[in-house]
Amino acid sequence: MPLRQRWKEIVTYRWLYLFMLPGLIYFLVFKYVPLWGLLMAFKNYQPYIGLMESDWVGFDHFTRFFTMPDFWMLFKNTLILGLYNIVIFFPITIVLALLLNEARKEVFKRFVQTLVYVPHFLSWVVIVGISYVLLSTTDGIVNHMIVSASGGQAVEFLTSTDWFRPLIVLQMIWKDAGWGTIIFLAALAGVNLQLYEAARMDGANRFQLLWHITLPSIRSIIVILFILRLGSFLDLGFEQIFLMLNPINREVGEVFDTYVYRVGLVQGQFSYSTAVGLFKSVVGLILVVIANQIAKWFGEEGIY
């Protein structure tokens, strides 16, 4: 396209480009400019002499990371929680969206939507604080009910290595499952109603409508969101897990995010922690590329 014609098009659609400007600035400042800092992973960064003047060490930080004794413990914990996120949390958002879509009473539907959306706006500090109030062995309501009902001993929910991962998943579901239904509900609103009417005339019941019309209609959205979620497979979030960690459950709860905080910010090993973060990003990129290719093999559009 000639330059003059391109400028004419920009002037014609200037308001649309103006609306895009804040988003472009956000991604430029917070996503692309920080990529320059990835050089730190290949250097022995010293703050007082700057990034460019620091000594180049190549892949030394990665070698140290992969050969340290705790690597496989961190990898195992992160992998298990990541699988829980994909296998349990992600399908629950779809099921919840389908249930909300099937609600016929509009008042009831709006009430339930509001109820499941509210926890998303609470910080993880509040969510974990409520968990402590409910599950404490001394004053926790849940343990009081257990002791009163069965006469047994209180359960060490907060310090048990067996309960740590289920609690993390339950907190994720409680906080974000409702919020995760928004895109699915928007996709469900676009399903052609004539398909349902035709299927009902052929004698289809509600389950058959769900299986043969609803799910195929939103399959592309499910695939795209699944691929995007794989990109953050090892990025479990720092705040929730950090607040739930204690010396007793650290063996099953320490993940890459909390490890980066401990060695990067607390101990000041900036280059080493950058290498760990870069490893997570590369794994996420590889998973996205593989999943996107598999989706295309099965006839889906993918994300690119």
Features:
2 strands; 304 residues; mainly alpha; 68% helix; MetI-like fold; two-stranded antiparallel sheet
Q: What would your notes on this structure say?
A:
This protein is mainly alpha-helical and 304 residues long. The protein has a domain at 70-126 and 172-297: MetI-like fold (Orthogonal Bundle), CATH 1.10.3720.10. Helix content is 68%, strand content 4%. It has 16 helices and two strands. The protein has helices at residues 3-12, 14-32, 60-67, 71-102, 106-117, 124-135, 141-150, 164-176, 182-189, 193-201, 206-217, 219-231, 238-244, 250-253, 256-266, 270-297; strands spanning 43-46, 50-56. The chain has a two-stranded antiparallel sheet with strand order 1-2. β1 and β2 form a beta hairpin. The model has no long low-confidence stretch (mean pLDDT 88).
Topology:
Layout: H1 3-12, H2 14-32, E1 43-46, E2 50-56, H3 60-67, H4 71-102, H5 106-117, H6 124-135, H7 141-150, H8 164-176, H9 182-189, H10 193-201, H11 206-217, H12 219-231, H13 238-244, H14 250-253, H15 256-266, H16 270-297
Antiparallel strand pairs: 1-2
Helix pairs in contact: 4-8, 4-9, 12-16, 15-16
